């Protein structure tokens, strides 16, 4: 679940200054859940923009806007309306905006800010968050991620800042992740894990492998390299 | 004798910390430090304490060193990644600073630049590991160095933490990674601190542990600390003493409380020394020491 929040309407309006005809895009996934880009918000945005003198050439809500293939097919059916529009306003997370921008030849504007402190990515809607660190430590920490549960992402135990099980930063809302880990390990009778000294994290592991990062040009280069020059 | 040599002696160790200026007027820092010359074994210069941006610890230590004082360079993991941290350790060594206190650092949101990105690429344990690896002639990535630095490493602990066990386990990790001295978070409740010392000694009886002594200036401050600072309990008797003393002499009462704590720690050999924190009132440190009998 990716958390997004709508930008101030004034900011959205400023970004659309140069344009009069807009196509709206929403998402029935996380953006709907966050009430930033579901049907209700699209209708509201339509009303607000029309009040400001804009023409809305059409709108579309995709089930998961992060699915590029899906958007491509869906948008195809709205081709005429999109061609009429000067730009698209996308009311989802940054991934949805980028995905849309990748498949249409029109300016694409984000209507939301993607909020992801502590890494709340992935489909799981519980407290458990993953920062996609590429080298999972859950085995050492009782299945609680130290990178996201601890405000500082500490991996070798708590700082000295916790009080009553709360974090030194925003104790009203933040549990101390290391207190949770400590309690869990106690429950699991795995206190010995707390004494293991973990090496500094290898953040290069957060990079996806080259083939996942590949562009068409990259693939062509690979093929060219494989073909021996005669 | 250098601080490092003193760690091998039986001397009751006394250190104090001074916050560098927010700006470039180094005069107050320097005069506060000069007043401590010959009275303390080393002076810590804090590293952006409470996440408030100031002059750096490295510069502060260098200035004091130039005046012939022994310093402790404080390094937190909050503002620098492993490249900058290792580089600063090397810089410290070539500038003649060998004592280094390795800390995690407060969260950025607590300071005066809450917009900043908290780094925490390393933690206090891996920062010690990095320093040790540099001493062995390699950086964290395993690349060879030209010439080897040599440090005298220290770390911190919160002896009043509840639960204490994870703190002790982490302290043990820091000792295993080369910490030779420990400066603790402020201590007021000696009974509780003694039980911490008992546990700490069971883990390791060679590391030098110095109890943190925080100067209380007002009853209001004492109550605030008691309520808001994690791991610090101020016994009601101290708060009462401060409340009972007339407005003009609360500072004097605070000095007496600090002095009395130091005296008791020294006489009862509770631990190996004290680390005095008189935030914003560092000029009072000589008086605290005098009231403790030093
Ligand atoms: S340790 Fe890494 S991979 Fe495992 S949950 Fe945390 S961020 Fe995700
Ligand atoms: S108080 Fe706990 S959660 Fe907060 S930074 Fe320290 S160890 Fe992490």
Describe this structure in words.
The complex is a heterodimer of chains A (about 230) and B (about 290). Chain A is flat and about 65 Å long. Chain A has ten helices and six strands, in the order βαβααβααβαββαααα. Chain A has about 230 residues and is α/β, with parallel strands linked by helices. Chain A has two domains: about 1-140 and about 200-215, Rossmann fold (3-Layer(aba) Sandwich); about 140-195, no CATH class. In chain A, strands 3-2-4-5 form a four-stranded parallel β-sheet, with helices on both faces. Chain A has a two-stranded antiparallel ribbon with strand order 1-6. Chain B has one domain (about 5-215, about 270-285): TIM Barrel, CATH 3.20.20.220. In chain B, helix 5 links the parallel strand 4 and strand 5. Chain B is built from eleven helices and eight strands. Chain B is of the alpha/beta class and about 290 residues long. Classes of the chains: A alpha/beta (about 230), B alpha/beta (about 290). The interface of A and B includes residues 164, 191 and 194 of A. The structure holds iron/sulfur cluster (2 copies). One iron/sulfur cluster (SF4) binds near residues 150, 154, 158 and 168 of chain A.
């Amino acid at each position: 679940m990716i958390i997004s929040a709508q930008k101030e309407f004034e900011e959205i309006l400023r970004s659309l200054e140069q344009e009069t005809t807009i196509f709206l895009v929403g998402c029935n996934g996380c953006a709907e859940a966050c009430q930033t880009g579901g049907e209700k918000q699209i209708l509201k945005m339509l009303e607000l923009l029309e009040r400001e003198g804009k023409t809305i050439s059409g709108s579309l809500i995709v089930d998961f806007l992060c699915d590029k293939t899906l958007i491509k097919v869906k948008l195809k059916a709205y081709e005429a309306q999109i061609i009429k529009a000067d730009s698209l306003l996308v009311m989802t997370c940054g991934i949805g905006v980028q995905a849309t921008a990748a498949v249409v030849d029109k300016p694409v504007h984000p209507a939301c800010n993607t909020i992801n402190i502590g890494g709340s990515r992935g489909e799981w809607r519980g407290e458990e968050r993953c920062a996609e660190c590429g080298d999972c430590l859950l085995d050492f920490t009782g299945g609680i991620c130290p990178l996201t549960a601890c405000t500082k992402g500490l991996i070798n135990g708590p700082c000295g800042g916790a009080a009553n099980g709360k974090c030194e930063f925003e104790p009203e809302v933040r549990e101390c992740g290391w207190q949770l880990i400590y309690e869990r390990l106690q429950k699991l009778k795995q206190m010995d894990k707390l004494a293991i000294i973990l090496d500094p994290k290898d953040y290069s592991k957060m990079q996806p492998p080259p083939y996942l990062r590949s562009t068409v040009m990259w693939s062509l280069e690979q093929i060219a390299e494989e073909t021996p020059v005669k | 004798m250098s601080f490092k040599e003193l760690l091998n002696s039986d001397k009751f160790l006394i250190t104090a910390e001074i916050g560098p200026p927010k700006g470039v007027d180094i005069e107050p820092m320097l005069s506060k430090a000069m007043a401590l010359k010959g009275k303390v074994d080393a002076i810590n210069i804090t590293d952006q304490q409470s996440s408030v941006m100031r002059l750096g610890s490295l510069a502060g230590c260098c200035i004091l060193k130039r005046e012939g004082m022994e310093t402790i360079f404080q390094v937190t993991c909050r503002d620098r990644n492993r490249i900058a941290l290792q580089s600063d350790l090397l810089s410290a060594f070539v500038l003649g600073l060998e004592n280094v206190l390795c800390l995690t650092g407060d969260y950025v949101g607590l300071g005066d630049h809450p917009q900043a990105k908290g780094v925490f690429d390393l933690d206090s344990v891996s920062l010690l590991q990095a320093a040790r690896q540099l001493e062995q002639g390699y950086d964290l990535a395993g690349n060879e160095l030209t010439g080897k630095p040599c440090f005298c490493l220290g770390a911190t602990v919160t002896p009043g933490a509840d639960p204490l066990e994870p703190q002790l386990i982490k302290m043990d990790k820091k000792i295993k990674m080369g910490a030779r001295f420990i400066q603790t978070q402020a201590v007021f409740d000696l009974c509780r601190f003694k039980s911490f010392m008992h546990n700490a000694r069971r883990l390791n009886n060679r590391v030098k542990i110095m109890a943190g002594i925080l100067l209380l200036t007002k009853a209001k401050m004492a109550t605030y600390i008691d309520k808001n600072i994690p791991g610090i309990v101020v016994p009601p008797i101290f708060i009462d003493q401060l409340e009972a003393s007339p407005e003009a002499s609360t500072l004097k009462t605070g000095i007496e409380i600090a002095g009395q704590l130091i005296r008791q720690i020294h006489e009862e050999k509770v631990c190996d020394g004290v680390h005095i924190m008189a935030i914003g009132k560092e000029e009072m440190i000589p008086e605290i020491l005098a009231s403790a009998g030093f």
